[in-house]
Design goal:
This protein is of the alpha+beta class and 282 residues long. Helices cover 24% and strands 24% of the residues. The longest helix is centred in the C-terminal third of the chain and has 20 residues. The protein is globular, with a radius of gyration of 20 Å. The relative contact order is 0.15. The protein binds a DNA duplex (16 and 16 nucleotides) through loops.
DNA sequence: CATTTATCCTGTAAGC
DNA sequence: TGCTTACAGGATAAAT
């Protein structure tokens, strides 16, 4: 499931080939894959053809490629299972390709940029830019790897809210890029129970938690992201290795790597939470 | 204003 | 073997 590290791996993979390329043709095979493009699939196809693509950018889990003059961008959210794949013209067909763009690149010849998405929670769109960010990502907070991320504002939000700390971690308006996997991992690392109310997390633990999010992100990034199956892959269709480094997520019943107590799996906010009942007291 | 709920999807795996 | 059901869960609109 693509969270910040996975989306960043995709962005890095696109950067080389896509910057200064031109879209020469477009095919939307399933209009649901452009549901973020409010004017519809036909409009997307018509307007994306001919545009020049610049350097890919990211905020949280939103990825975009500014176009031409920079007033607009090709926006992508990968949702649960979205993939952006760079393929040569002769390369075999990948499964679940919903949108295909043909690119004329500066240094890599002609390439296909395929948006594949099994579950269709992801979407592409052509969006207008506002203050350097596509409008659809304007409400998203900076992510903790962004040099301009405001630590104090995030810590203040934690301090003043009664909602569960995990819920706050997943709130993209407060801190972006964190999804279920990295939330569980960061909470485990910082020894914070996921259901602790934000205002009851001590100042020291709150700072430790923010550092844990950063450290988990950086480690995952170095390992090419997390994938359990073929749902998350880089632009070449390859899986990352971070799944081997997970301490809590998906390890219900297995011993905590720190203390040996079985990791507990509970249902929380309609998703699963994994934590060590001994290391992470409420 | 904050918080909760429903909706969108399909492949995989478990249960009968 | 074949059918049904539960599950994975990010973003967002609507409801409370």
């Amino acid at each position: 499931m693509p969270e910040l590290p996975e989306v960043e791996v995709v962005r890095l993979g696109l950067a080389q080939a896509v910057a200064s390329s031109r879209v020469v043709a477009a095919e939307v095979r399933d209009p649901r894959a452009v549901k973020r493009h409010v004017a519809g699939a036909a409009d997307f196809e018509a307007r994306i053809v001919g545009v020049e693509l610049l350097e890919p950018a990211r905020r949280g889990k939103f990825l975009w490629i500014p176009t031409g003059g920079g007033a607009e961008a090709l926006l992508a959210h990968l949702g649960m299972s979205g993939q952006l794949l760079l393929r040569t013209h002769e390369a075999p067909e990948d499964r679940h390709v919903r949108v295909r763009l043909w690119l004329e690149t500066a240094h890599h010849g002609e390439l296909r940029l395929d948006f594949a998405d099994q579950r269709l929670f992801g979407s592409l769109a052509l969006d207008s830019m506002s203050d350097g960010v596509p409008r659809q990502a304007a409400h998203i907070a900076r992510d903790p790897l962004d040099p301009l991320f405001d630590d104090e504002a995030f810590l203040r939000a934690l301090r003043t809210r009664s909602a569960a700390v995990k819920k706050l971690l997943l709130d993209q308006n407060l801190i972006s890029g964190v999804g279920n996997i990295y939330a569980d991992e960061a909470l485990w690392l910082a020894r914070v129970h996921p259901e602790t109310p934000g205002c009851e997390v001590s100042a020291i633990k709150a700072r430790r938690l923010l550092e844990a999010v950063r450290s988990v992100f950086l480690k995952a990034l170095a390992e090419g992201g997390t994938s359990f199956d073929r749902l998350y892959v880089n632009v070449n269709g390859e899986s990352g290795y971070f799944a081997h480094s997970l301490n809590a997520y998906g390890r219900g019943g297995e011993p905590c790597p720190r203390c040996g107590t079985p990791i507990r799996r509970i249902s929380f906010m309609n998703r699963s939470s994994h934590f060590c009942p001994r290391c992470q007291r409420r």
